[in-house]
Specification:
mainly alpha; 157 residues; 0% strand; 8 helices; 56% helix
């Protein structure tokens, strides 16, 4: 086979070509597949649609995170403790976006989550429990693929 025939067609596109190249391959039995740009999919197949009680469950789970932080007060310097409290409130604000017309921010969820896990590892267990909650999973799914991927990467070990 010559080099011309063995190269993939997208390798032949000149570097100065504009636009996007989107390649998708879908196998047999696939469902819920979307190929393209700016596509948002929900995790309803696995967790179900948002339910009226989800916000209350999230509020309770966030209260557990705040309680865990308060129990660490003697082990953290004052600045870290204050920043952690602020970050938890920020995370709560995003995860409480359970209504159909509300869109949680994937970047806020991931940045705050990273900061909390890296800066206050003492509360990692309660954060893991928070993100494992199906109600939180539904909100993370609404936030999009970046947030879902982050949760898998940080907690899926």
């Amino acid at each position: 086979m010559t080099k011309e025939k063995s190269e993939a067609w997208w390798d032949k596109i000149p570097a100065q070509a504009g636009g996007d190249v989107i390649i998708g391959e879908v196998g047999a039995g696939a469902h819920g597949v979307a190929i393209g740009k700016n596509i948002t999919q929900s995790v309803y197949d696995m967790l179900g649609a948002p339910a009226p009680g989800d916000k209350q469950i999230i509020d309770q789970s966030m209260a557990a995170v705040m309680t865990a932080l308060q129990q660490m007060q003697g082990q953290l310097d004052a600045n870290t403790a204050k920043m952690a409290e602020f970050q938890i409130k920020l995370l709560h604000g995003e995860l409480a976006k359970t209504e159909k017309d509300e869109k949680p921010s994937a970047s806020t969820i991931t940045q705050v989550g990273d900061w909390l896990l890296d800066s206050v590892p003492q509360i990692a267990e309660v954060l893991t429990s928070l993100f494992a909650t199906p109600a939180v999973g539904k909100v993370v799914g609404k936030a999009g693929e970046v947030a879902v991927g982050w949760v898998k990467q940080r907690f899926g070990k």
